[in-house]
Amino acid sequence: MLLRNVRNDFNLTQKEAALSIGVPLRTYIRYEKSGDEKNLKYVKMIELLKEKFEITENKGILSIETIRKVLTPIFEEYGEEIDFCYLFGSYAKGYAKENSDVDLYVSSSLTGLDFVGLIE
Question: Can you tell me whether residue 83 is helix, strand or coil?
Fold first, then answer.
């Protein structure tokens, strides 16, 4: 995986990425341009960015925009079968913590296994 792709996945500028992993901006830019995936420092930079910014079930707080990006294609797939969706709880109030879950209320005409497919 390319360093630039990892940085872009986390919506970071080169300056933000360099600061977050503790290297000078020029150094970061040089490594990003090189694309040398065999270089140990290059690989370590990728690891550090992922360690700091990657969101898992146990680490990290999602942005509202990230939640929207994940949900939009799902709602487009189900089209008219979904009436509306509300975000509630700590994320809606702006108090989300690392262990917070995303609470959604979905109004839909789907039932049974079709509804389970939406939830999955």
Answer: strand
CB within 8 Å of 68: residues ≥ 6 apart: none
Report field, pTM of the whole predicted structure over 0.90: no
Residues 6+ apart with CB under 8 A from 118: 74, 78, 82, 106, 108, 110
Q: Is-contact 14 31, C-beta < 8 A?
A: no
Query: How far is Cα 97 from Cα 15, in angstroms, rounded to an integer?
Result: 26
- List pLDDT tens digits, range 70-97: 889 988 888 888 889 999 998 889 888 8
Contacts of residue 62, defined as CB under 8 A and 6 or more positions apart, other chains included, come to 55, 91, 96, 102
Within a 10 A sphere around the Cβ of 42, how many other Cβ atoms?
17
37 Cβ contact partners less than 8 Å away, ≥ 6 residues apart: 1, 2, 43
Tokens of 89: 């709880």
